[in-house]
């Protein structure tokens, strides 16, 4: 492939300059010894030149982690994880490792990229072709960067933020998801290697979606990614995570942590499209996606909105949540989860109403096909002080075929008589009538399923930024391939 | 799992001493299941909030109080009348238990048709042990429920109702359990068996009522088998005292084209839990599982239900309404499971709770577990307070606020009461709700449901 | 498109169809030429809907004997979407709701699927919108209906007009109208009939399935067949419909008894 060779050359040319653009951390190509102990934690911290307080925090987390049990309440099954049989620090692969070109890549993966209409250069990146540097148009990246700097937005790897604005990191890190939170998050606190840091100054509306930028640049943040986003007073940011094409990745366990903080009158919109490797039709391989995502609406009138499209991973364990502390604050959760073949997903949200007149809305659309099992698990809690709080929840499940399962487990806790909670859930299937109607109009079965499912998910798809929504729609169809006779 | 509480298990200590006096002490098969029960209970321990389906209910009263077994003397406590639920027992059959002991003088045999056997557990074990062996402990599913295991070991009272094929009992059968007339905390363990053969029909009204003062603990297990095309209406009022602990576990098997209709009205008890598991085993089986809970003071009431659809074209409807005043707390956990075989299932569940006071708390967990695709299943849950607009509307029509509130609570609970198909029982339950309302200044005879 | 003008549009020979082991059609014969409009009338339970479904290829109908030939091709075993692509359109008695899917999205998907099948290029968004505008204008259908989810919250009349619109867009060679008059008041019926009449052409045949004669006041058929007890019992001109209106189906009940 001529195009890929050309790209490889560009990459090579850029390799020497790569640090100049600031988004790739300076680390030597080195790997920590296999296994997990205090030395591993110290090694990571030292490699990243971290301040003393952070190392101390990591160690506290690690020691606590040793005392913790694996969460077992989710409706997922997998063999016990051997935490000692893993590497916790490895530098990004150089051009000697990994596939040399797209020709070395699984053709099925490439076929999917094709269907999604992913540009060739991005395909290489996504497939893990040895692109160790910023391969895309450098000028685009720098333009973005200067535009953000102009308005004072800080958007960089956490490791870089520790040098640039250590006080901000120290002030907020671990305040939404404490290092004691749950086994996966605690592990992340001990060994996180990188992730993004975003700070939006007071009164600033972030001039662009922090998506395109991320998609081009973030890579190999790997197994234990940590994201921290702070929206200061009266600011706004929309952040997009992940990409719509399946990521080639050898790591089995992903335990990421995302913390969001919204101050007075600030708004954070966080969208995720997750399409990690789901394993094969028989459930062999695939990513364990054990993610802790939580946002704190600390300020009055603040708002945090989570939108997720979860179609990948062998196991998804994820509950993006909102702590509604500020009076009149708003939490939203829009979710599409698709499980096919042998995938398992246990996902949902928590809305913790603490402030007065706080409101939350949960729209969850789950689609289960093949032999997959999926659970919506959600908590709505109205605390005694949440005067006038409101929640509305709508959970719909769609089952395709008779080998899969769809489960709904909402927890509703109200300690305030003025709070109103409304929860509704339904389970249905694609009816034979619908299939015949669509096919009678000339639409083949798989396209018919995709059409119905996209209709079923519409309310959530509408929440995604436009360019993302189009790919997400295609993804819905691709994820369900093979689910009908 | 293991012992999940550190409190010594009082009932285990007392088991050996109590055993010789328990019904059916001479039956070896019963001895075996009692022993297996106490062993398993000892292994499980009392349930604690660490167990997922005990997340919201802690058996605090059992940890604090050393309950003692009841004696025959407790059973003969002075009692001048029986608080009958249905207005005129007349020819209606009625069984009365006082402090867990059958009270023969209050027993009304009633006009039961032939083919119906109604007696206390002790008599059944003496008269027809083979029949008892065939059912006792057969419907309680696996052995994970500690309270069922405890009851199996300790069962000392209860009744058995057996209806032969095709026999229809028109009159509701009332069973009254009176508690609270003792000078020390006592525990008793009723075990009830209801077996309806094919095509049989019966209505059973269970009335748990506390009189007097003093703590007591009733741990009831009821096993129900409904044969093909049979129908059971199973109604219950739980009106225990504010010192009482009332724990009840019901297991029901519903065969092909059979129907189970239940209503549980909880209006009293320091700590209560009504756990019902229904298995819809035959094609076309139906269940209506409804209830209402009205709590005040610091009462705690837990309704936990599991409806499992195991056969095609099975149906369930579930409506629970709750009204919580003062610092009371209620728990609703309702699970609908649809197994792969149960294509064509139609299931709907609704749980609504009104909080009347700051300090009251509801924890609701409606749950769907679906493994079949051709199903129609849904659930809904709401919590909130009395609708201010409706309140204003009534007041603007001249109804004083207190009465208007009562009226709105009545209409709220009425939606659930309407599900009771037996008219006499519906009226009786409606009256119970009216009596529960504060300052019963407003009682209208017109308002008795439909 | 068939090259020979003389070729039959639809030829059904001795068709036997069972549903769950019960025989519904018991040796049905029917022959329709290009451009003709045939009405199939019959009492409830005579097999009218079975006939429409089996021509469109719905699952669950077992053909135990006979054949359905469409433009010279045996339809047996052909998937419904392939039949649609070859030009068979069924206007449903009860149009199905597809929540969340806009009418335009659905039509574009359907039209392009059919075009792909025929080896014609897909219409792009602009071409499609232009074409839709022309069709809605022609049939007097508001744009509002296009934006709404397929049949969701549509009145009975709207659902049937939507079926006619789909027919106009997909441009079939054989259209089967299954009880199109059911659930419509007289005004709605007129509007739908008007739409159907606009779509009559020498290249297109239509099969009108109905219980009542009143639709045939507005859509005048070339031939009328009476279907009862799984067979065509009588065939005549449009006057046969009027006769049925007067006498009912009693005659056919006795005939088969």
Count the domains of chain B: 2
Count interface residues per chain for the largest interface.
A-B, 35 and 35 residues
Portion in strands of chain C? 25-35%
| SSE-based structural type of chain C | alpha/beta
Low-confidence stretches of chain B: 1-8, 440-450
Distance between the termini of chain B: 49 Å
A few lines on this structure:
The complex is a heterotrimer of chains A (485), B (450) and C (257). Chain A has 485 residues and is α/β, with parallel strands linked by helices.
Question: How would you describe this structure in keywords?
Answer:
heterotrimer, A: seven-stranded parallel beta sheet, disordered N terminus, B: 450 residues, alpha/beta, 2 domains, ten-stranded mixed beta sheet, globular, disordered C terminus
Give a verbal description of the structure.
In chain A, helix 2 (38-47) packs antiparallel against helix 3 (52-66), helix 7 packs across helix 8 (166-172) and helix 12 (445-461) runs antiparallel to helix 13. The model of chain A is unreliable at 1-29, 92-96, 130-140 and 213-221 (pLDDT under 50). Chain A is globular. Chain A is built from 13 helices and 18 strands. Chain A has helices at residues 2-15, 38-47, 52-66, 107-116, 120-127, 138-151, 158-164, 166-172, 183-191, 212-217, 432-440, 445-461, 466-479; strands at residues 154-157, 196-200, 226-231, 236-242, 253-254, 257-262, 267-274, 288-297, 303-310, 315-318, 321-324, 330-339, 344-353, 359-369, 373-382, 390-400, 405-414, 420-429. In chain A, the strands form 2 sheets. In chain A, strands 1, 2, 3, 5, 6, 8, 10, 11, 13, 15 and 17 form an 11-stranded mixed β-sheet that branches. By secondary structure, chain A is α/β, with parallel strands linked by helices. In chain B, strand 2 (94-98) and strand 3 form a beta hairpin. With 450 residues, chain B is α/β, with parallel strands linked by helices. Chain B contains 10 helices and 21 strands. In chain B, strands 1, 4, 5, 7, 8, 10, 12, 14, 16, 18 and 20 form an 11-stranded mixed β-sheet that branches. In chain C, 36% of the residues lie in helices and 28% in strands. In chain C, helix 6 (156-170) runs parallel beside helix 7. The model of chain C has no long low-confidence stretch (mean pLDDT 88). The chains are: A alpha/beta (485), B alpha/beta (450), C alpha/beta (257). The interface between A and B is medium-sized, with 35 and 35 residues.
């Amino acid at each position: 492939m001529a195009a890929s060779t050309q790209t490889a050359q560009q990459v090579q040319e850029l390799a020497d300059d790569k640090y100049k653009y600031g988004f790739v951390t300076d680390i030597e190509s080195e790997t920590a010894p296999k296994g997990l102990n205090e030395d591993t934690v110290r090694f990571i911290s030292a490699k990243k030149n971290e301040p003393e307080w952070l190392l101390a925090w990591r160690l506290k987390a690690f020691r606590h982690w040793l005392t913790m049990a694996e969460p077992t309440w989710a409706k997922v099954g997998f063999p016990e994880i051997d935490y000692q049989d893993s590497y916790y620090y490895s530098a990004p692969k150089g051009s000697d490792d990994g596939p040399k070109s797209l020709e070395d890549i699984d053709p099925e993966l490439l076929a999917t990229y094709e269907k999604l209409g992913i540009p060739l250069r991005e395909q290489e990146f996504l497939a893990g072709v040895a692109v160790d540097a910023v391969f895309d148009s450098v000028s685009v990246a720098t333009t973005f960067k200067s535009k953000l700097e102009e308005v004072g937005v800080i958007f960089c790897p956490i490791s870089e933020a520790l040098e640039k604005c250590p006080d901000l990191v120290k002030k907020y890190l671990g305040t939404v998801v404490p290092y004691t939170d749950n086994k996966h998050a605690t592990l992340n606190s001990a060994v996180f290697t990188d992730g993004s840091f975003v700070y939006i100054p007071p009164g600033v509306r972030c001039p662009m979606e922090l998506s395109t930028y991320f998609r081009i640049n973030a890579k190999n943040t790997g197994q234990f990614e940590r994201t921290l986003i702070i929206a200061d007073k009266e600011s706004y940011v929309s952040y997009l995570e992940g990409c719509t094409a399946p990521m080639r990745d050898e790591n089995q366990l992903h335990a990421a942590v995302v913390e969001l903080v919204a101050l007075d009158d600030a708004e954070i919109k966080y969208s995720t499209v997750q399409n990690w490797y789901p394993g094969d039709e028989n459930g062999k391989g695939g990513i364990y996606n054990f993610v802790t995502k939580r946002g704190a609406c600390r300020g009055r009138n603040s708002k945090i909105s989570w939108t997720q499209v979860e179609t990948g991973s062998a196991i998804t364990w994820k509950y993006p949540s909102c702590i509604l502390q500020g009076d009149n604050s708003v939490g939203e959760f829009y979710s599409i989860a698709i499980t096919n073949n042998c995938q398992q997903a246990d996902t949902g949200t928590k809305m913790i109403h603490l402030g007065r007149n706080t409101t939350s809305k949960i729209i969850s659309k789950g689609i289960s096909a093949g032999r997959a099992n999926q659970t919506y698990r959600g908590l709505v809690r109205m605390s005694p002080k949440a005067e006038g709080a409101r929640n509305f929840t709508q959970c719909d499940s769609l089952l395709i075929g008779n080998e899969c399962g769809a489960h709904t487990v909402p927890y509703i806790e109200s300690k305030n008589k003025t709070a109103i909670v409304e929860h509704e859930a339904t389970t249905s299937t694609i009816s034979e009538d619908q299939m015949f109607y669509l096919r009678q109009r000339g639409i083949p079965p798989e396209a018919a399923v995709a059409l119905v499912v996209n209709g079923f998910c519409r309310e959530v798809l509408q929440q995604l930024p436009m360019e993302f929504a189009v790919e997400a729609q295609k993804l819905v169809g691709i994820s369900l391939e093979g689910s009908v006779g | 799992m293991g012992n999940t509480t550190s409190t010594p298990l009082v009932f285990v200590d007392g088991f050996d001493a109590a055993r010789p006096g328990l019904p059916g002490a001479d039956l070896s098969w019963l001895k075996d299941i009692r022993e297996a029960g106490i062993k398993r209970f000892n292994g499980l321990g009392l349930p604690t909030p660490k167990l997922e389906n005990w997340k919201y209910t802690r058996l605090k009263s059992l940890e604090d109080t050393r309950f003692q077994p009841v004696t025959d003397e407790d059973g003969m406590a002075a009692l001048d009348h029986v608080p009958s639920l249905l207005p005129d027992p007349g020819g209606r059959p009625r069984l009365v238990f006082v402090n867990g002991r059958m009270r023969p003088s209050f027993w009304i045999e009633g006009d039961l048709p032939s083919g119906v056997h109604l007696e206390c557990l002790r008599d059944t074990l003496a008269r027809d042990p083979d029949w008892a062996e065939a059912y006792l402990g057969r419907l309680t599913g696996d052995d994970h429920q500690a309270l069922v295991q405890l009851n199996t070991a300790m069962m000392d009272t209860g009744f058995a109702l057996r209806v032969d094929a095709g026999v229809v009992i028109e009159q509701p059968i009332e069973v009254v359990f009176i508690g609270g007339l003792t000078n020390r905390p006592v525990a008793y363990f009723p075990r009830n068996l209801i077996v309806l053969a094919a095509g049989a029909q019966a209505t059973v009204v269970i009335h748990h009522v506390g009189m007097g003062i003093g703590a007591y603990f009733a741990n009831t297990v009821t096993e129900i088998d409904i044969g093909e095309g049979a129908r059971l209406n199973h109604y219950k009022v739980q009106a225990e005292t504010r010192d009482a602990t009332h724990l009840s576990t019901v297991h029901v098997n519903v065969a092909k084209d059979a129907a189970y209709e239940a209503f549980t009205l909880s209006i009293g008890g320091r700590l209560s839990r009504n756990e019902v598991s229904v298995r819809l085993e035959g094609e076309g089986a139906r269940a209506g599982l409804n209830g209402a809970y009205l709590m005040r003071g610091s009462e705690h009431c837990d309704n936990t239900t599991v409806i499992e659809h195991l056969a095609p074209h099975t149906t369930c409807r579930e409506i629970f309404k709750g009204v919580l005043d003062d610092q009371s707390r209620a728990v609703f956990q309702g699970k609908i499971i649809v197994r792969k075989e149960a294509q064509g299932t139609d299931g709907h569940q609704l749980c609504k709770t009104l909080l009347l006071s700051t300090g009251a708390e509801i924890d609701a967990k409606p749950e769907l577990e679906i493994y079949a695709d051709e199903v129609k299943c849904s659930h809904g849950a709401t919590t909130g307070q009395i609708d201010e607009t409706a309140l204003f509307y009534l007041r603007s029509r001249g109804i004083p606020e207190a009465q208007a509130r009562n009226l709105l609570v009545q209409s709220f609970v009425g939606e659930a009461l309407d599900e009771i198909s037996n008219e006499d029982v519906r009226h009786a339950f409606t009256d119970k709700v009216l009596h529960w309302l504060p300052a019963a200044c407003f009682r209208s005879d017109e308002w008795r449901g439909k | 498109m068939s090259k020979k003008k003389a070729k039959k549009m639809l030829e059904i020979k001795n068709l036997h169809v069972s549903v769950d082991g019960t025989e519904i059609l018991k040796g049905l014969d029917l022959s329709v030429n290009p451009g003709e409009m045939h009405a199939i009338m019959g009492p409830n339970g005579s097999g009218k809907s079975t006939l429409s479904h089996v021509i469109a290829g719905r699952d669950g109908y077992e053909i135990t004997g006979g054949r359905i030939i469409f433009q010279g091709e045996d339809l047996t075993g052909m998937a419904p979407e392939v039949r649609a692509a070859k030009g068979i359109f069924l206007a449903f008695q009860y149009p199905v709701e597809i929540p969340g899917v806009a009418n335009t999205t659905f039509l574009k998907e359907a039209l392009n699927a059919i075009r792909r099948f025929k080896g014609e290029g897909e219409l792009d968004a602009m071409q499609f919108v232009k074409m839709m505008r022309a069709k809605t204008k022609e049939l007097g259908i508001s744009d509002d209906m296009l934006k709404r989810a397929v049949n969701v919250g549509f009145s009975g009349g709207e659902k049937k007009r939507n079926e006619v619109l789909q027919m106009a867009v997909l441009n079939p060679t054989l259209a089967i109208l299954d009880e199109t008059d059911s659930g419509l008041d007289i005004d709605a019926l007129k509007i739908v009939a008007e739409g159907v009449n606009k779509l009559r052409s020498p290249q297109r045949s239509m099969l009108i399935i109905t219980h009542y004669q009143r639709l045939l006041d507005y859509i005048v058929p070339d031939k009328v067949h009476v279907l009862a007890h799984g067979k065509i019992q009588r065939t005549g001109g449009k006057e046969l419909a009027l006769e049925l209106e007067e006498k009912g189906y009693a005659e056919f009940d006795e005939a088969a008894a």
